[in-house]
Amino acid sequence: MANTQTAVPLFVANSILTAAQQNISAGTGVPVFATTVTRDAAFGGSNKALAEGQLCYLESTNVVQYYSGSAWATVGPATSGALVYVGGGSVGTSTAVTYSSIFNSTYDNYLIIASDLQTGAANANLTFTISGITTGYYTNVGLISWGTGTITALAEGNNSANSGVFASASATSGAGFNLFMNGPNLAKAKSWAGFAADPAGTYGRVGIIGKNSSTTQSTDFTLTTSSAFAAGRVDFYGYAKA
User: Fold this and answer.
1) Does domain 19-76 correspond to CATH entry 3.40.1620?
2) What is the spatial distance between Cα 177 and Cα 192, in angstroms, rounded to a whole number?
3) What is the pLDDT of residue 46?
């Protein structure tokens, strides 16, 4: 975008103030950043140290923020609800797709929605990992019969290197899942819960609960299938803190 900045200048004696720098200041009034990642990189070091009252605008979420002296807080605009879209997109045609810089300090908890997932073969297992954590995943999956509503006992559905979501019974069924993830970017253990649906499967709904004890602060989400994706998308929403 035209107004996006990657640094916040700190002028010293005898430094040159350019027309471009003046134009950015006059055109925006506050620094404009693409994401919270570029915002944080622009402050401190040889640029400008954070100070209480500093303002910025984020293009990724279309909000104005201020620095309280200890953390960034949102001024506005007010969201229409508790959920704010933070990223996502198509799964492409590979066996694994990574969505980068999804989790950050702006939100503690997230909703992940996958829709119309199609794979190159039936019974393709779907698993996920979050950045920096490659072991210690534990997910229990409960099967719920589509026709009768019968709930089977919860059973371990993954290995410790990733977190099992469910298996797509048909390559073109358009399966999907909703996953509520707690604290992926916090320095504490993570947990998740949700449900999945596969229209072509014997079991129409799958209940999901899981955890990982790692205190790694994760930023990325990777969805992997045992057979390459043919279609589908994944979208991420952050739960507003206030």
Assistant:
1) yes
2) 12
3) 60
